[in-house]
Amino acid sequence: MRRFYSGSQYGISTDALSFTEVTNDGFEEEDRVPRPITLFSVEAQICPKAPSLYLRIQHVVSLKDMRLLRDEYYDEVEKDYFAVLPICKHEQKSLWMQSIPRDVLIHEYSNCNDCNTDWEIELFDNRPSGHVTMVMTRYIDLGPGLSLDDPRWRVHAWAEWEESVCKLDSKYMTPSPRHTFEALTDTSLEDLTSRNLSYLENERYQTVMVPGPRIWPRSWVLWSGAAVRS
Q1: Residue 26 has what pLDDT?
Q2: 147 in Cβ contact with 136 (< 8 Å)
Q3: Is residue 19 a contact partner of residue 41, using CB atoms and an 8 Å limit?
Q4: How far apart are CA 150 and CA 4, in angstroms?
Q5: Which of 15, 61, 65, 100 has minimal Cβ neighbours within 10 Å of its Cβ?
Q6: How many Cβ atoms from other residues are within 10 Å of residue 136's Cβ?
Q7: Is the separation of the CB atoms in 116 and 122 below 8 Å?
Q8: Is the peptide bond before 36 cis (omega within 30 degrees of 0)?
C-alpha cells in the first residue's frame, strides 16, 4: 500500500505479492492411499476509490478417485481419505471421498458473517484424469494498510486469538470483497480456475514452474520474475 500512497519508488507492487505454488507429497510406503496434490495461488488488487488491499486466494486439493477401485479396497480406505480446507478463522470445509456423489456438480458460495470473507467451492470430477478435485476461492479485504490495528487487517492475521479481532463491526462488512476484486482484475475467476487446473494435468507444473526451496514436501513455484522453463 505504500507504493499506492507515495509513488512507484516506494514499497512493492501488487504483482510482487502474487504467486502460485504446487505441493506434491507423493506416496509413502506406509500410506494406505496416495497423498493429495495441492495448489495455492494468491493475487492482490488495490481499490483506489476507497483505498483497500484485496486478495483473491485459491486453494486446490486434488485427490485420487478411490471410488474407481474395487469395492472391498475402497471400504478399507474411505474412512481415512479426506481433505480439510480452512476458509477463515471461523469456518472450514471438509471433503470425505465416500460422500461425493458421482456425476453431480457441487458448487456453493457464501460469506463469513464474522470477517466478511467471501468464498466459493467447486468440485471437479476427473480433472485431472482419475482425480476428484476441490477448488476453494476466497476473497478478503485487508483494509487501507495505514495501521496494524485496523480491524480488517487484524481479523485475518493469524496471531494469538486473544490478540486478534474475532468479529468485524457491521461498518466493515461492506462492500463485497469478491465483487470489488472481480471488478478490478483482468483475469476472471473462471480463467484463473482453468489455468490452475491445467497445471495439474499430466503434472505440467513440473515443467512450467520453478522447484521450491523445500526438500519435503516437494514444491514448485511460479511468481513474478521467476524463470519459466519452456
Answers
A1: 60
A2: no
A3: yes
A4: 18
A5: 15
A6: 21
A7: no
A8: no
Residues 6+ apart with CB under 8 A from 175: none
* 149, 159 Cβ separation under 8 angstroms: no
Q: How many whole angstroms separate alpha carbon 74 and alpha carbon 172?
A: 47
Q: Which residue has the cell 477463515?
A: 88
- Contact between 116 and 88 (Cβ < 8 Å): no
Q: Please, are residues 33 and 43 in contact by the beta-carbon 8 Å criterion?
A: no
Residues in the chain: 230
Query: DSSP assignment of 131-178, as one string?
Result: EEEEEEEEEEE---SS-TT-HHHHTTS-S-GGGS--S--GGGS-S-HH
Q: What's residue 81's pLDDT? A: 56
* Amino acid, single-letter form, for residue 129: S
Q: What is the pLDDT along the chain (230 residues), one digit of tens a residue?
A: 888 888 888 888 888 889 999 998 765 545 555 678 899 999 999 999 889 999 999 999 888 776 555 555 545 554 455 667 889 988 888 777 666 666 656 788 999 999 999 999 998 877 777 788 889 999 999 999 988 889 999 888 866 545 556 889 999 998 999 999 999 999 999 999 999 999 999 889 999 999 887 777 789 999 875 545 44
How many of the other CB atoms lie within 10 Å of CB of 219? 20
DSSP state of 97: G
How far is residue 34's CA from residue 203's CA, in Å, rounded to a whole number?
15
Which residues sit opposite 111 in a β-bridge? Answer: 118
